[in-house]
């Protein structure tokens, strides 16, 4: 079964879905050249930022990732069910009906408007324009 394939523990975003949340200290906090804090403050701030971001992310995923994964599994199962058993068959029925309607209107237009357009074409083809 394809759903139980091996999980890649190194590259966890192979399709680059969440590149917009790749945030590091330098992306959030920056000091201009005219204003610098003490080097030890800057170094400690960097460490505290990275550590707290990493620890809190791990804590939040530990607490909430399983229930959220369960919810999203159900949601995508429902979406798949809808498409397989409702939307795709409904679109197929609609397509069949539209094909029949297209043939019906084509015949009507050819029978009713075709002769009128052909007559108008013959009438206007007899007009000659002379430039003087």
TrEMBL record:
InterPro entries: Caveolin, Caveolin_CS. Its main location: membrane. Keywords: Cell membrane, Golgi apparatus, Membrane. Belongs to the caveolin family. It is a peripheral membrane protein. It is found in: Cell membrane; Golgi apparatus membrane; Membrane, Caveola. May act as a scaffolding protein within caveolar membranes. Interacts directly with G-protein alpha subunits and can functionally regulate their activity. The keyword Transmembrane helix does not apply. It comes from the Eukaryota. This is Caveolin. GO terms for cellular component: caveola; Golgi membrane. Pfam families: Caveolin (PF01146). The keyword Cell membrane applies.
């Amino acid at each position: 079964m394809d759903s139980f394939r091996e999980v890649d523990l190194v590259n966890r975003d192979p399709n680059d879905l969440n590149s917009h949340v790749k945030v590091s200290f330098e992306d959030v906090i920056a000091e201009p050249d005219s204003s610098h804090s003490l080097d030890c403050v800057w170094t400690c701030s960097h460490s505290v930022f990275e550590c707290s971001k990493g620890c809190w992310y791990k804590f939040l995923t530990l607490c909430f990732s399983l229930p959220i994964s369960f919810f999203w599994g159900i949601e995508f199962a429902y979406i798949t069910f809808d498409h397989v058993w409702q939307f795709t068959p409904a679109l197929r029925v609609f397509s069949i009906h539209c094909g029949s309607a297209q043939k019906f209107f084509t015949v009507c237009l050819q029978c009713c408007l075709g002769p009128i357009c052909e007559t108008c074409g013959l009438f206007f083809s007899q007009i000659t324009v002379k430039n003087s």
